[in-house]
Design brief:
The complex is a heterodimer of chains A (113) and B (115). With 113 residues, chain A is an all-beta fold. Chain A is globular. The chains are: A mainly beta (113), B mainly beta (115).
Chain lengths: 113, 115
C-alpha cells in the first residue's frame, strides 16, 4: 500500500531563514513518481514539482530545492531565504494505479516577517 | 484562461438534504477527481473518473455520488447518508493514463458546512 508521512505538522521560521520540509514514503512499486504541492490560504493546491524514481538528482528552482533519496525513501523540500509569501500548507504526494494520489497530512509553514 | 472552476465557494447543508458541488474544467483533460480535506488529515480521494460515463470509488466514497456525462463536468453530490459532511472539497483534473504520475491540477475548492 502507498503511504506518505509528513511528520512536521507546523513549522515557524523568521523571514530569510532556510527551512526543510520532510517527506517519507512507502511503496512496493519499482517505479513511481513523487510530487510536492503548495496550498496557500486561498485553498487551491498549486503544483510545485514531480520527480520520477529513476532520477535521484537533486533539483533546484530558484529558492526551492528538492532532495530525493531512495535509500531512505525520502523526498525533502528546502526553501532558501524564506519569504512571507511562502507561508502555506505543503503536501507531498505519491500516486498509485489509476493516478490515485496518496497525500501526506501536510506541513503548515508560517514565515514571520 | 484554462483552469478548473468549483462552485459555490461556500455551501451550507441542512439535515437530511442532498447538496451538489460543481466542478468544471476547460483544460481538455479526460481524468477528473474529487478529494475531501479535513484538518490534520490531508486529502482523501472520494471518486475519480478516467473518461466520460465511467467513474470509480476512491477510499471514502460512502455517502457521496458522482456523474460524468460531459468531459468538462464532474459534479459531486453529498447525500444525506454522509453523516459528517463538513469539510473542504477539492476537484482536480489530469490527462489520462493507466499508469501513475500525471500532474493533477486543482480548483479553488468548496467549503461545506452543516447548519
Amino acid at each position: 500500500a502507498q503511504k506518505v508521512t509528513q511528520a512536521q505538522t507546523e513549522i515557524s521560521v523568521v523571514e530569510k531563514e532556510d527551512v526543510t520540509l520532510d517527506c517519507v514514503y512507502e511503496t512496493r512499486d519499482t517505479t513511481y513518481y513523487l510530487f510536492w504541492y503548495k496550498q496557500p490560504p486561498s485553498g487551491e493546491l498549486v503544483f510545485l514539482i514531480r520527480r520520477n524514481s529513476f532520477d535521484e538528482q537533486n533539483e533546484i528552482s530558484g529558492r526551492y530545492s528538492w532532495n530525493f533519496q531512495k535509500s531512505t525513501s525520502s523526498f525533502n523540500f528546502t526553501i532558501t531565504a524564506s519569504q512571507v509569501v511562502d507561508s502555506a500548507v505543503y503536501f507531498c504526494a505519491l500516486p498509485h494505479t489509476g493516478n490515485q494520489f496518496y497525500f501526506g497530512t501536510g506541513t503548515s509553514l508560517t514565515v514571520i516577517p | 484562461d484554462g483552469g478548473i472552476t468549483q462552485s459555490p465557494k461556500y455551501l451550507f447543508r441542512k439535515e437530511g438534504q442532498n447538496v451538489t458541488l460543481s466542478c468544471e474544467q476547460n483544460l481538455n483533460h479526460d481524468a477528473m477527481y474529487w478529494y475531501r480535506q479535513d484538518p490534520g488529515q490531508g486529502l482523501r480521494l472520494i471518486y475519480y473518473s478516467q473518461i466520460v460515463n465511467d467513474f470509480q470509488k476512491g477510499d471514502i466514497a460512502e455517502g457521496y455520488s458522482v456523474s460524468r456525462e460531459k468531459k468538462e463536468s464532474f459534479p459531486l453530490t453529498v447525500t444525506s447518508a454522509q453523516k459528517n459532511p463538513t469539510a473542504f472539497y477539492l476537484c482536480a483534473s489530469s490527462i489520462p493514463g493507466q499508469g501513475a504520475g500525471n500532474i493533477q491540477y486543482f480548483g479553488a475548492g468548496t467549503r461545506l458546512s452543516v447548519l
